[in-house]
Design goal:
The protein has about 140 residues and is mostly beta strands. The protein has 2 domains: about 1-60, no CATH class; about 60-138, no CATH class. Helix content is about 10%, strand content about 40%. It has helices at about 5, 60-70; strands spanning about 10, 20-25, 30-35, 40-45, 50-55, 55-60, 80-85, 85-90, 100, 110, 115-125, 125-130. The strands form 4 sheets. It has a 3-stranded antiparallel β-sheet. A 3-stranded antiparallel β-sheet has the order 4-5-6, with no helix packed on it. A 3-stranded antiparallel β-sheet has the order 7-8-9, covered by helices on one side. A hairpin with a 2-residue loop joins strand 11 and strand 12. It starts with a helix and ends in a 10-residue tail after the last strand.
């Protein structure tokens, strides 16, 4: 499915943004709105393949590549693919095998709250935007 299908809209006529990580949507009633592409969505900037992160089209995050290499001790080159919330797909560039890993608890992530993307932290494989107050023991 395309990003627009997930967002429940379609590209509105004549509305556009020069930000490749923002899409203009139009609902059935004709109302239009802007929506951020999901974190890690492919984007193109200056004819270069990149990925969206917080509404900005950035190069592949080297930290994801390092994460893949450290977790899969292999001599083959690993490519970090699209990181969605608290999972990351790493592809072995030689064999084409895709490995899916869960991000560590506490890793920053973004969750779609239905209205916007809100920063949170990974917990048991899910992106939690809840904050747990510190309770002093004793």
């Amino acid at each position: 499915k395309s990003v627009l299908q997930y967002l429940g809209g379609s590209l509105g006529p004549g509305v556009g943004s020069n930000n490749p990580c923002v899409v203009q949507c139009q609902g059935a009633t004709g109302n239009t709105w802007s929506a951020a592409k999901p974190w890690g969505s492919p984007c193109i900037l200056n004819n270069e393949q990149r990925f969206c992160a917080s509404n900005v089209c950035v190069l592949k995050n080297d930290s994801y590549l390092d994460y893949c290499r450290q977790n899969f001790q292999t001599s083959n080159q690993l490519l970090a693919l699209i990181p969605y919330a608290c999972s990351l797909e790493c592809m072995d560039a030689v064999t084409g095998i895709v490995l899916k890993v869960r991000m560590n608890d506490g890793t920053p992530c973004y969750a779609n709250t239905g209205y916007r993307y809100q920063g949170g932290y990974c917990y048991s494989g899910s992106c939690s935007i809840l904050t747990f107050p510190y309770v002093r023991q004793g």
